[in-house]
Design brief:
This protein has about 240 residues and is of the alpha+beta class. The relative contact order is 0.20. Helix 2 links the parallel strand 3 and strand 4. The protein is built from 6 helices and 11 strands. It has an 11-stranded mixed beta sheet, with helices on both faces. It comes from Faecalibacterium prausnitzii. InterPro entries: Acyl_CoA_acyltransferase, GNAT_dom.
């Protein structure tokens, strides 16, 4: 198994329970935050059959969930009409020289004030997911994860969270306020986390959109793509081809 997959699974087990659902599907379930796709998915190993997908759909409907999500490390031959997104896992190899990374010396990294953190998340995620969900999700995550905030001029300019296990440190949900863009907020945060990981002898990794600008930034910093996750999502069951 690719080592980062083991760490990712431990991350999900912080929030979700797992149980075998069918021959090709395992259900990941979070009853505390049921309207979050990431913690309520079916993980597939091999191509699910139409009968398996029908059973998965019936299960979701019985739970009252208005979405169906499948995740796996190989593309499906038959996606049943579901939309697919890909996420690349990028690792910073041990021994990478980070001394020439661009960082802003005026930025301080510390645990963010939670009220400021919520307002920062609401500003960007509230319009997309709703204020209630955004607040519940942030509080849900910070119960079990370590958040870091980047402060500039006394204001929260950016934040992210980290999860560490088995010699690996995962950095995720990096968000920089638009008022502080182009001031090396993101690279300063990544630099701080990378330094701490190297001090511990741990390997830093992250997840990125393969088509997004951040992936190019991470590649220039020395991160290497080592894995890919395929995510199939349906929020309109009438579009399923079964």
């Amino acid at each position: 198994m690719i080592p980062t997959r083991k760490t990712d699974e431990k991350f999900y087990r912080l929030f979700s329970t797992f149980h075998a659902f069918s021959e090709h599907l395992t259900k990941r379930e979070d009853n505390e935050l049921r309207d979050k796709y990431d913690h309520n998915a079916f993980c597939y190993s091999g191509q699910p059959t139409e009968d398996e997908l029908r059973a998965a759909l019936a299960y979701q409907k019985a739970r009252g969930d208005a979405f169906l999500k499948l995740e796996g490390y190989e593309p499906l031959a038959n996606a049943f009409g579901m939309e697919c997104e890909e996420t690349v896992t990028m690792v910073l190899p041990k021994g990478t020289d980070i001394s020439d990374w661009k960082a802003n010396p005026e930025v301080s990294i510390k645990t963010p004030d939670f009220d400021q953190l919520e307002q920062h998340e609401l500003k960007y995620y509230g319009p997309l997911y709703g204020e209630d969900f955004t607040v519940r999700n942030n509080r849900h995550l910070r119960e079990k994860l370590t958040y870091l905030g980047a402060y500039l001029g006394g204001k929260l300019a950016g934040d992210c969270y980290i999860f560490a296990s088995d010699g690996y440190v995962c950095m995720d949900s990096l968000l920089v306020d638009e008022a502080f863009r182009h001031q090396y907020i993101a690279t300063t945060l990544v630099n701080h986390i990378a330094e701490k990981a190297q001090e511990r002898g741990a390997v830093l990794y992250l997840h990125a959109d393969p088509e997004g600008t951040p992936k190019d930034m991470y590649a220039k910093m020395g991160f290497q793509a080592v894995d890919k996750l395929y995510e199939y999502l349906c929020t309109d069951f009438s579009k399923l081809k079964i």
